[in-house]
Structures are given as C-alpha cells and as structure tokens.
Amino acid sequence: MYVSARSDYAVRAMLAMAQQHPALVKAAALAASQDIPYSFLQGILLDLRRAGLLHSARGSDGGYALTRAPEEITVGDVLRATGGPLTTVRGAPAEVATYHGVAAGLGEVWQSVHRAIERVVDRSSLADLLVTVDRSADAHAGRVRTRSVPD
Which of 8, 56, 86, 141 has the fewest CB atoms within 10 Å, i.e. is most exposed? Predict the structure, then answer.
C-alpha cells in the first residue's frame, strides 16, 4: 500500500476537524494547523465533500465540518475518498489482477494483502486516533486511558 501526500493530508485534515466536531473549521486554519499547502487542501476538501464525509458552509462564519460523528468515519473512508482503491496492482484494483502459469497463485496473495489493509483502516475511526493522541498526552501527564486503536 502506498500512502500519497494527498491521502496523508486528508487524514490529518479530517482528524483536525474531528477534534473540533461539530464546529465549522476554516480551510485556512486547517492548512496552517497541519502544515498543508492551502491550494492542495482545497482540492482534498472538495473530494471529501463529494464523498459525503464533509459539509461546508459559506460566509464569514463558514467552514467545513464532518457529516457524521468521528466514531463513524474510518481512515478507510478517507483514503478511498481521496485515493481510490486501497491496494492496486499495476494501477488496477487488486481484485481484478489475474495471473496464469507459475504465477497463478499470486492473485490470492494480493487479495490477502488487500483484506489485511482493509481490516486495519476500516477498524480505525477518527475517534480512535484522537483517543491515541489523548492517551499519549495523558501518559506524559501520568494519567492512564483504557481505550486503544484496534489491531
């Protein structure tokens, strides 16, 4: 699996919005807080809105917000919205890779890789990642949290 800058930026932007949920967050504030080029972020936000993960409001009090609770949006949702299939083989989704002869079993390997990646990203919600951040901060302060990111 290759994680592009676009996908990484998208997950970071969604985490920043999840932390502020349900408040509206301005694109310029997201870009600054996550060190994402503003013009690049604008395209990412459009993809996330088209995928139904964000809604936007115009005007001086406008901005972007999650359409669902952070617990209901997974890293997989964000990655698919901004990068397409989670795994590809020669540019095509892993599911369509076909082989014959000595390589006939290779398609099943790519399918297994795809399923393993899906299990991780589809079980990790934005809220899970925020808890991880909170837990790290709590550990530094001597507090303990009990919830963790799924394996």
Answer: 141
